[in-house]
Write a structure and sequence with these properties.
6 strands, globular, alpha/beta, 6-stranded mixed sheet
Length: 199
């Protein structure tokens, strides 16, 4: 949502490591959030084939930026630094572009260009599993850590918070509340055997 709300071109970019179901699910959810703000948004998608190749990620990001994407998200590990560097170079050249952090709070990695970070609170996820196990509620089923239980969240970068319009922040907050209440279902890609659509 923040990507589409901050984009001037209506074109966003996604750089992934390996095209596996959890990454695909993240990207489908990203697209849905963007389209909730701008139904006509164009989303470019690239995979570099691994998690840590900074050069390949930068190359993919540069390619998307040259196609007028102006807000990029990644789903990589160390390769994220290539995405951030590509965005920084656009800004250093007088352009406008932003990035989003992923999987942990990366706001301090490139505070001049990262609007915010999608985070996973792993300690909370493990605590939820331990509580369910102790209560006897696991029953051999997969346990999903979600935004509904606060494990997945979006943290605005304090250094750029003033650049995000208050109305956009309000809409993001309302969406978070709706997800936690169960009234807004985030798209996902099933990837555990036995789930709906997986055989």
């Amino acid at each position: 949502m923040v990507a589409a709300g901050m984009s001037r071109t209506g074109i966003l970019g996604m750089v992934g490591g390996v095209s596996i179901p959890p990454v695909q699910g993240t990207f489908r959810a990203f697209e849905a959030g963007a389209r909730a703000i701008d139904p006509g948004v164009v989303v470019l998608e690239s995979f570099i084939g691994n998690w840590d190749d900074v050069g390949a990620a930068k190359e993919a990001a540069v390619s998307q930026l040259r196609r007028d994407a102006d807000v990029l998200i990644h789903n990589t590990h160390a390769a994220s630094f290539g995405v951030f560097q590509a965005v920084r170079e656009v800004v250093a050249g007088g352009g406008t572009a932003y990035a989003l952090g992923m999987n942990r709070d990366q706001n301090d990695v490139a505070p001049d260009v990262i609007l915010g970070s999608a985070i996973i609170r792993m300690p909370r996820a493990f605590l939820e599993v331990a509580r369910k196990w102790r209560a006897g509620d696991l029953g051999g089923r997969p346990v999903y850590a979600t935004a509904a239980d606060g494990v997945i969240d979006f943290v605005v970068n304090p250094a750029l918070a003033a650049a995000i319009p208050p109305e956009l922040l309000r809409r993001i907050g309302a969406a978070r509340d709706s997800i936690r209440a169960g009234t807004l279902v985030v798209p996902r890609v099933p990837f555990v055997e036995g789930e709906e659509g997986v055989s």
